[in-house]
Design a protein that fits this description.
This protein is an alpha/beta fold. The chain is 43% helix and 22% strand. The protein has eight helices and seven strands; from the N terminus they run H-H-H-E-H-E-H-E-H-E-H-E-H-E-E. Strands 3-2-1-4-5-7-6 form a seven-stranded mixed beta sheet, with helices on both faces. Strand 2, helix 5 and strand 3 form a beta-alpha-beta unit. Helix 3 runs parallel beside helix 4. It starts with a helix and ends with a strand. It binds S-adenosyl-L-homocysteine, 3,4-dihydroxybenzoic acid (DHB) and magnesium ion. Magnesium ion binds next to loops.
Length: 223
């Protein structure tokens, strides 16, 4: 029996074998990302399917994602959508967006995904000004330094009762350390601080272990 992190990964494999099965499309996505040299910081299969089922469970028709990378989580989210549903996904790096476009085109989900390249804060402001239709579900997974501003934009762009999910809110427990060397930690702590008494959302977080080590998802529902 493997121990520590290896055991967490083995359990993720067990979960995938039983509840997800062979997913040739997403295997190909991960392989293309690896070949292109993208960092392997996509969600796990179990997490991706959880995002898909959460979005499907609330009947999401309009999904916003902040942080596309190679489109692995985007594909999980797009799979939750009904006919005419859309995922709008924001990515800073044009080269990553290009890889995501190629990956998504192989899934046949192209007409359900819009990738917008640029600094997400600027893109989100543009979406607000444009008066874009409200989103039902938002997955936030880009630069952790901007998690608190992303929360405010996500609230502004969502319908009342929308589901917001933030990735990487535990970081192997490092979020407890106000003096952390990891520059992503203060941004994540700022998110918890603004959520502590937030008038417009109710939130919780769950810690997770698995192939992505010890981390967590934060769930917030808008009022
Ligand atoms: N959601 C993806 C992983 C996203 S990784 C998945 O699970 O498959 C985080 C992504 O956020 C990276 O691709 C990074 O380039 C992007 N990012 C970082 N800073 C950003 C910013 N300011 N605006 C938009 N995207 C940003
Ligand atoms: C990092 C970012 C992520 O979104 C993730 O899931 C894991 C790691 C990072 O920037 O280190
Ligand atoms: Mg992440």
């Amino acid at each position: 029996m493997p121990d520590g992190d290896q055991r967490w990964s083995a359990v993720d494999d067990y979960i995938s074998d039983h509840l997800i099965g062979e997913d040739a499309i997403q295997q190909e996505t991960l392989e293309a990302n690896r070949k292109a040299g993208l960092p392997a910081i996509d969600v796990s299969a179990a997490q991706g399917k959880m995002l898909q089922l959460l979005a499907k469970g609330v009947g999401a028709k309009r999904i916003l994602e902040i942080g596309t990378l190679g489109g692995y989580s985007t594909i999980w989210l797009a799979r939750a959508l009904p006919e005419n549903g859309i995922v709008v996904t924001l990515e800073l790096e044009e080269s990553y967006a290009q890889i995501a476009r190629t990956n998504i085109s192989k899934t046949g989900l192209d007409d359900k995904v819009e990738i917008i390249v640029g600094e997400a804060i600027a893109t989100l402001s543009a979406l607000v000004h444009k008066g874009t239709d409200p989103f039902d579900f938002v997955f936030i997974d880009a630069d952790k330094q901007n998690y608190a501003p992303y929360l405010e934009h996500a609230i502004r762009l969502s319908r009342p009762g929308a589901t917001l999910i933030f990735d990487n809110v535990v970081r192997e427990g490092e979020i407890l350390n106000p003096e952390s060397d990891d520059p992503k930690v203060p941004g994540t702590r700022a998110l918890y601080e603004v959520l502590q008494n937030h008038p417009k959302v109710d939130a919780t977080a769950v810690q997770t272990v698995g192939s992505k080590k010890w981390d967590g998802f934060l769930l917030a529902i808008t009022r």
